[in-house]
């Protein structure tokens, strides 16, 4: 196996993976004594990314001892069952399915963002190696000339700018690439504030999959609007803004899928989020229900109350004509099971004509996202 051949094979799966990002990851994972494509697992099992068997795997298994790393940096050996493939093509097909299903934050349009997404899997990071992101970035810089040719440096820098603008990278990840590419003297690249504390925000787009939430028209077999679609648009836009502000963002879902309420809380807790925001759209059996409101649990602390209040304050500023119904107490699962300040926000009533015109307008989604981003920023800064 060589880099270009693997890259060409990976291109077949570009609808589910970033081919260059996958090449860099597998180039690193298959190294033995610094030489790629020489690992025991790759040579004997065609497994180029250390994919473990797991309970759902029905194929062949290859047992091997590998090292793991604890959060405190301690390394230890562990014998594990890995997936065994008959060919590299089979591996890539399974790898692409795994990325698509459990690493939805891996950016398909950006290899830096693809690496960052490997830390945001539904069940945790891809690897326990604390330097995994840094190592993949170093591989990218080394392989870029071979894959992209004479314009490789421009490609690397352009991808960094794009990843920064889209909010794919945490502040520490930005700093890693910034230093690796030597961008401190490049006037086209904004300088980064390395002293900024990284805060983690978990955004929860309410409902999804088989649970559409509120619908309009209510009870229609073919509703024009569904809560699950609107909340996802708002959550993704909010995450984009927060990323630009330097926050690290996790989502409970980024596609139309069913996620249980306990699972949403587990995602926030496992990723050690500083704040959790669940976004919803209200509805009523009569059109009289109108306005914006939010909820906190009965055990909410001062920071949670301040967070909800900041949302209300910014909401009144951006939508001054919309009735404000205030903050209410309700022990919803996502508020009770999360271990950080958590707010469930209802953006308005889909059943009300005036609210509905605002709720379904894409321009409003951007305004609502700015409300949430500013409220989070204010709360974290003691306001």
- How many domains, as an integer? 2
Average pLDDT rating: 90
**Distance, first to last CA:** 56 Å
Describe the strand arrangement of the main beta sheet, using strand numbers: 6-3-7-10-8-9
Q: What is the count of helical runs? A: 14
Structure, explained:
- The termini are far apart.
- With 383 residues, the chain is of the alpha/beta class.
- 43% of the residues lie in helices and 16% in strands.
- A six-stranded mixed sheet has the order 6-3-7-10-8-9, with helices on both faces.
- The protein has helices at 3-11, 19-29, 40-45, 88-102, 111-117, 132-148, 152-166, 171-180, 227-244, 261-270, 302-318, 333-336, 353-359, 362-380; strands at 60-69, 75-84, 200-205, 215-216, 225-226, 248-251, 275-282, 292-296, 324-329, 342-349.
- The protein has 14 helices and ten strands.
- It folds into two domains: 3-185, no CATH class; 200-380, Aminopeptidase (3-Layer(aba) Sandwich).
- It is globular, with a radius of gyration of 23 Å.
- The longest helix is centred in the last third of the chain and has 19 residues, at 362-380.
- Helix 1 (3-11) crosses helix 2.
- Helix 11 (302-318) links the parallel strand 8 (292-296) and strand 9 (324-329).
């Amino acid at each position: 196996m060589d880099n270009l051949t693997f890259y060409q094979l990976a291109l077949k799966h570009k609808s589910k993976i970033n081919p260059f990002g996958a090449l860099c990851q597998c180039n690193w994972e298959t190294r033995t004594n610094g030489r790629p494509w020489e690992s025991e697992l790759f040579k004997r099992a065609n497994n180029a990314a250390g994919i473990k068997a797991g309970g759902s795997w029905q194929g062949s298994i290859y047992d091997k001892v590998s090292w793991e790393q604890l959060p405190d940096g301690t390394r230890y050996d562990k014998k594990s069952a890995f997936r065994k493939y008959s060919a590299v093509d089979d591996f890539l097909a399974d790898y692409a399915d795994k990325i698509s299903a459990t690493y939805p934050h891996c950016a398909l349009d950006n290899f830096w963002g693809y690496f960052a997404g490997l830390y945001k899997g539904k069940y945790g990071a891809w690897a326990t190696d604390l330097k995994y992101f840094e190592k993949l970035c170093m591989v990218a810089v080394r392989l870029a000339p071979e894959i992209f040719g004479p314009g490789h440096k421009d490609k690397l820098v352009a991808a960094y700018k794009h990843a920064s603008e889209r909010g794919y990278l945490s502040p520490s990840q930005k700093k890693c690439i910034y230093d690796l590419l030597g961008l401190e003297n490049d006037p086209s690249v904004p300088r980064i504030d390395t002293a900024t504390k990284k805060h983690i925000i978990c955004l929860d787009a309410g409902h999804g999959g088989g649970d559409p939430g509120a619908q309009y028209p209510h009870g229609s077999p073919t509703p024009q609007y569904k809560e699950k679609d609107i909340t996802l648009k708002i959550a993704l836009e909010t995450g984009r803004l927060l990323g630009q502000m330097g926050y690290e963002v996790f989502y409970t879902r980024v596609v139309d899928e069913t996620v249980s309420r306990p699972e949403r809380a587990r995602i926030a807790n496992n990723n050690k989020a500083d704040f959790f925001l669940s976004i919803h759209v209200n509805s009523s059996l009569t059109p009289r229900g109108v306005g914006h409101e939010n909820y906190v649990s009965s055990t909410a602390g001062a920071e949670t109350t301040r967070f909800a209040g900041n949302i209300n304050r910014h909401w009144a500023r951006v939508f001054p004509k919309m009735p404000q119904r205030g903050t209410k107490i309700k022990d919803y699962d996502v508020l009770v099971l999360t271990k950080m300040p958590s707010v469930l926000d209802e953006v308005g009533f889909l059943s009300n004509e005036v609210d509905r015109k605002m709720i379904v307008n894409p321009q409003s989604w951007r305004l609502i996202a700015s409300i949430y981003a500013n409220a989070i920023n204010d709360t974290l800064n003691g306001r």
